[in-house]
Sequence to fold (823 residues):
Amino acid sequence: MKSFNVLIVDDSAAMRSLLVSTLESLGSLRIVEAPNGFEALRMLPREQIDLVLTDINMPDINGLELLSFIRKNPLYKDTPVIVISTEGSSKDIEKGMALGANEYLVKPFKPTQLIEIVKRFL
Amino acid sequence: MSSDPRQPSDAARDFLAEAEEIVEELGSQLADLADMAEQGSWDPDLLNAIFRAAHSLKGLAGMFGFALIAEVAHHAENLLDWLRMGKVSLSKQVLELLFSSAELLTTLLRACSDGTLDQHQAAAAAHAAAIAACLEPVEPAAETPILEQLGLSETLMGALTEYEEHRLKENCAKGRRIYVVHASFELTSFDQELSALTDLLKRSGEVISTLPSVGENIDTHIDFDLLVGSDRTEQELRATLEPLQVSILAAGGGQAAKAEHGHQAVPQTPPAAGAAAGTTPSVLPSAASTAPEAVSAVEEPLTAKSMSRTVRVDIGKLDELMNIVGELVLAHSSIANIANRMRTEGFSRMAIELGKSAKGLERRLSDLQKGVMDIRMIPVGQLYEKMSRIVRKISREQGKKIELKLFGAETELDKLIVEDIADPLMHIIRNAIDHGIESTEQRLAAGKDERGTVRLSSFQKGNHVVIEVEDDGAGINVEKIKQKALAKGLVSDVSGMSDREALELIFLPGFSTAETITDISGRGVGMDVVRNNIAAVSGMVDIETWPGKGSRFTIILPITLAIIKALIVFCSGRTYAVPITSVVESLILIPDDIKTVEGKEVISLREQTLPLLRLERLFRIERIGCNPGEQYVVVVGAAEKRLGIVVDDLLGQQDIVIKTLGAAFKSLRGISGAADLGDQRTILVLDAGGIIAEAMRGTGS
Fold:
């Protein structure tokens, strides 16, 4: 059976490990981490990504730019993307949804919220 | 709140490690911002980086359940957001608020590890109120330029964050031209090429947004649209980017009057910008996929590895590793011992073989030891950053102009020592500025430069690292010190006291409680604590002063604490270790040489008087196992402050791992810890600095 690959993009290592440990409770997921947008762009062609979880606020290439690229690229355009933002940046979330994000999460969120949302895409 | 704040979970530890890094970075970026603001202009990228730091911290703290930290970060973020969006101006007051935010965050993070976070509610509330008072727009937002007129594509506009949109407007308002630079890079090497292009563009203006896009060869290439604001004409920009085969689309702008020219930093364009581009063709191969230069990318194989090649490790793990190495070293010495004994007892062939294996093991062990040690070593430059921030802060607060000169930032020191030395060093620097450097008027009157200088330099000297703090202030008034010590009843007689001895008084407990308790030096921390903290890492501190010219504090530290060579001595039936780094020499004591001066035993060593100290007297233990034969003197100390410790026997040198005695024995002077000798014997390790200090205070006290 083909594994379900999740790409986590966040410049915070602590945040990534929190997301990873939360998602691990779902079992059978293969999780790939990218510490920035560049790294995510490098990973997309190499890993068969089934779901992207990306922070919006990152240096150089932010989550919105990454999302926009995914949606425009015929190779990945149907990959579900969940954008993560911090409370107070509602405009950026709006933009994310307009760009075609499938879901969004606002920090701080509870592990169960993340699980609920990710389950929908499995 | 986390369930048990006293025992942070792994996740909380992750959070704390990262949060500390963020706040530290935030502090140094703020200092840079303050410097730039002083010169009247600043880089929007820097301000945005500072905003991002506060924003990330807020998100992180929220996720990990530290609501109070999230709240403080949130208020700081708000203020920074207003700043970067131009809704509030960067006044001195705002800068102060930002600095105090960073400080409060540092305090809170520390409280997190102590589990005392709840005690800071009031401080957080005051912080929030101070910021709220600041958040009143200076003026109603000016009429925003109509971005639609730029004719930028919907895709590009759609992916701009709120802030990027604001930067676009700002660039338009300043009359800059807006360009979209399109480039296509190979997937294998796009990151280097893109950052080279970005660097080049930043010299010509501001890169507002970098949007990855889809080009013709989606399997091998990735395209980027960079939104750029620049004062340059299209032709000029084209000339700059000529060697790169990128396409440039002029989007417009540039017609508006340059009303506020000079308000914000425009990165200076070095004259070599064009030339630099010409010299880096290999870094920036042409966009065409068939370009021969692109072949160089083959050297870098496809990899999903992270770009960052560093690992963050908890220092505790390194300590554990070091302990194991230490124990291996001990195990090795007992094997070597066995080999020696076997040789003397007649098992010569096996003894030789065992000896050989032990030698081999020793070499590998020393490689391992060096390897682990290297991981622990960090450049003292990390301390310098903190210190320059503090100097800037104090000089701002006191209105003194201070120049901090830094030397030897690359000198390496054990991470733990660097951590432990930060506070004492900070205190010495604060003292230098607070008490050493005179006010501007006094300096001018004394014919000095109105700008005071503090020199912070580090260098390696044998197995030591020396850190010097030198100021060009008024120097220390020795008479005043004597009078103060008398007045405080710390000494009963100062007549006949040499200047050097008088300077030692500063380090007495109870001496340096400043009359006017300032925020800076008056934190209830005296120089005695400074000396103790330095002694705790087996270091020593010394003062020299030149009236009217300044003072110099010299801190001498061992390079590492993990494993040290020690001289093992025997005295009154007990064995002790003396770190070899504090031993100057050892000699045989000839009883007839001992003279008594003012009730203290001394000998004459190369025409200098060397005071003697008997350990049994210092530790007030009974003299047993009196050695009828020779006794030895172990000379410890540095420079003028030397002392001869009288011992019954010298047992040789050995590598030891110093373990602390725990909080219960913290007040014990003259002992820095305990060590395991490898033969199941645990011995005390003498702290030479502490013993010298104790001896100076008068024997028998």
Remarks:
- The helical segments of chain A are 13-24, 37-43, 63-72, 90-98, 111-119.
- Chain A has five helices and five strands.
